[in-house]
Structure formats: C-alpha cells, structure tokens
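Hey, I'm writing a tutorial for new members on how sequence and structure tokens pair up, and I'd like a real worked example in the thread rather than a made-up one. If someone can provide the structure for the chain below, I'll link this post from the tutorial.
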Amino acid sequence: MGFNCGIVGLPNVGKSTLFNALTATANAEAANFPFCTIEPNTGRVAVPDLRLDRIARIVEPASVVPTHLEFVDIAGLVRGASKGEGLGNQFLANIREVDAICHVLRCFDDDNVTHVETTVDPVRDAETVETELMLADLDSLEKRVDGLTKKARGQDKDAAKQLELVNRCLEKLRDGQPARKIEIADDERRLFKMLQLLTAKPVLYVCNVDEDTAATGNAHSDAVAKMAAQQGAGTVVISAAIEAEVAALGDAEEKQEFLESLGLEETGLARVIRAGYGLLGLITFFTAGPKEVRAWTVPSGTKAPAAAGTIHGDFERGFIAAETIAYDIYVDLGGEHPAKEAGKMRAEGRDYVVRDGDVMLFRFNV
C-alpha cells in the first residue's frame, strides 16, 4: 500500500532543495528560476522510528526494514494556475494524484533569491496556493451540476445524493473555505473521495527558514504557525539549506555533531517525514523474527485481517488469528518468548483493530 505527499509551493521557495535533501538524491534540479521542476520527481524515504531499532536490538535479525513514505516534488504554482497560467494545468493534475500536501513556504529574506511575488510573505503565499486550489475545485464541481441535476430529476437516487453533496461543497468553497472543512457523514465518504477535490487533502505547512533561525523559527514562521492553528493544520520549521548540508555528510555521527553545533537535536527532515506520516492518519505495526524485523504502514482503524493483507494477500484470505504483543511490553520484557511466558501475548481475531506499535505474528491457513 503506497502513501505519498506532494511537495508544493510557489517557485523558488526551496521545494526542490527540500526534496533533494529528503531523498538524498539529485533527482530534482534546484535552480534560481521558476519551473525548474517540470515533471514530478518521486522519492521514497524511510520513516524514522526508534521503536524499530529497539526491537531489532532484542531480536538481532538478519535484516531490518523500515516503513516508507513517498514524496513527490511538483512544479511550482503561480497566481492564475487554476486557469492554466504557468504550468498550472500540469500542477493541478499532479497534485490530484497525491494523498496529502506538504506546502513549502519561504520564510527567509535573501536578495539573491528571486521571489515570484517580489516580497517575502508566507501567509500571502499560502493563501495564493489555497485560492488556486479552491478555484480549481469550484470549476470541477460546477461542471458536474447540470449532469447530476438531470439524473436526479429522472429519479436517480445516487445522483440526487451526489448532487446534494456537490452543492454543499460548492457552498463551502464559495464562502472561501477548503473542502476539508466540510462535515462528511460515514456513508458519504466514498462519494466525497470520488469527487477528487484538491482542497480536501490534508495540509502540512513546511516553513523554510534561514540557517540562523533553524532552531528557533522567526517572525515569518510564527505568522504561519498562527495561520495553521486557525486552520487546524500542522507546521514544521526547517532550513532546506541545512538539510542539504546534512544530506551531503558521510556518517550518522558526523551528521549529529553538525546538528548539535547548530542547536538542533534532529534533522528537520525527520520531523517532516513523521509529520507527513501523521498527516495521512497512518500507524505502524511490527513483525519480528530471526530473518527480519520490519515496520508496516496501515491507516488508523485497520482491522487485523487487512493488516495481514499488507504483508501478503494469502495472510488476509486465510486469516485465523493475530498473536499480538504491545510494543512497550515487548521491549520491557525482552522479546516474544518472555512476553508469551508472562501471559502478555494476546490472540486477536478478525475484529481486532490494530494499535500503533503492535508487534504481530499472523496465523493463517490457505
């Protein structure tokens, strides 16, 4: 199961620099001019998780496999993108394919780096992108109304239900609110997802600051944090320049020393990755054996058979039970056998909802 975050923003805000550091590759060309990223670049990155390392130290397996997120670097957007300005049509098509949005905002002043709007104002920039996405959603929904209305008049109940949902979405968007603000009932979620609205996607604001304020943030990032709090969105403060330097260093110890010299405990990228993971409403469960200790990604609320299916389809089809140990118990007692002897291993059935950190062994018969 793949999960991806689209890295978006205006041109020259540091998107490609961030992407390069995130994936530790040079796949995205970073240059001081608009639209240097034309085709979306994609990179898979490991989700940092100390729990995986601790389980591995107990088991001492042949291999350790983290869970991953996919990041997509998307061409820069400009005002008028909803009408095709710049690379607008391509931008909108690419962003429609991702699960969530990491919106990079320029929060540093530098006369040597051109800003497409001439001045630095991250809140304005965020509103520019959000407005273009809302306009695109409005256009998409308005084109559906006539067809749905005709079907609804013909006693098509599904069309009538979809029309009612479309009209609610239009009302919210015309009021200047993104589609993610709409209250959706459980029985409407499938229809809502089928609308493929850009502003329905969860958003994380990534504040790209200068090196001197990477540890503390600055007035620009503070303004973004205030805006995000009002929206119920998340923020992460990073310096893409620092992240690029860290990515170029040799080993983990050298990287950690460099970060500590700047007053940083960990990379901003680690926070971005974790925040992206949380943004998508994902949890991690683990499998642990002598051949492999591995982290697996599933949406929150996933039941045991579906979790087993992420490993192999046969596990889900022939699911019998999931032998489960909570992470804290697994680590405190020193592994599977001590936990089992202490009566802390649970045999969970088909209705069990997987919890973040569960260490699981699936029993199945095909």
